[in-house]
Design brief:
3 helices, alpha+beta, 11 strands, 7-stranded antiparallel sheet, globular, 222 residues, 4-stranded antiparallel sheet
């Protein structure tokens, strides 16, 4: 969640950049996330943008939010002296930039990291936003139950089906639950006044500071 800016020694003749429109592969993004994790203990096990999943059904009694008109504007430092916790990492070897928030702590030892990726270093609108939940415990918690729901001011936010992953270590189990959403949907989430969520049976609500950080990330998107 120490600065994440990584400086690499520039060789006299560097590798040719990838085409600006090439979408990073799963393996590319996993390598970059490994670099992020080593540079800051608070950024753990980020995953790449997830693709090819069917969206979950939307509640018939609560229509999905119309996110097209949301455009939050948040400066890096607000009048209360709060600074945004946004970190940006560029890898010149893969020509990929990852922009994320530091981990947002949630109940029951869960952490949330929103992030997006874009090719190159020039600002460009990402294909999607990614939300990444992580948890470490002594046993499997989300293997068979990893559904995610959000309510924004009482209205259900449509999201795609989440993906679960996990690894057993020495006396612990590290799990991740991740999914992607359209940029407009994330902007609607960040623009809410009361934002509640549920991961399996864990219910949470973002506090004002966490909402400030979410809005700051939404405002950072080109």
């Amino acid at each position: 969640m120490r600065s994440l800016a990584i400086a690499f020694l520039i060789a006299s003749s560097g590798p040719q950049p990838l085409p600006s429109q090439v979408t990073p592969t799963l393996q590319d993004l996993q390598r970059q996330l490994t670099i992020l994790r080593r540079q800051n203990d608070s950024l753990r096990r980020l995953v790449d943008s997830l693709q090819g999943r069917s969206p979950t059904s939307v509640s018939r009694t609560a229509p999905p939010l119309d996110a097209q008109d949301f455009a939050p504007k948040v400066s890096s430092i607000d009048r209360g002296g709060r600074s945004s916790q946004i970190v940006s990492q560029y890898d010149r070897f893969r020509d990929v930039t990852i922009v994320s928030l530091k981990e947002i702590p949630l109940p029951d030892g869960i952490a949330l990291t929103p992030f997006y990726t874009m090719p190159g270093t020039s600002p460009s609108r990402p294909i999607a936003m990614n939300l990444f939940f992580s948890s470490t415990s002594t046993e499997w918690r989300f293997l068979d139950c990893h559904n995610v729901e959000f309510l924004v001011d009482g209205r259900r936010l449509p999201i795609e089906s989440p993906k679960h992953d996990g690894k057993v270590g020495k006396g612990s189990v590290a799990e991740t639950v991740s999914f992607s959403m359209p940029v407009a949907t994330f902007t609607a989430l960040a623009s809410g006044t009361i934002v509640e969520g549920r991961l399996c049976r864990t219910v949470f609500q973002f506090n004002p500071e966490q909402m400030f950080q979410m809005r700051a990330l939404a405002a950072r998107i080109p």
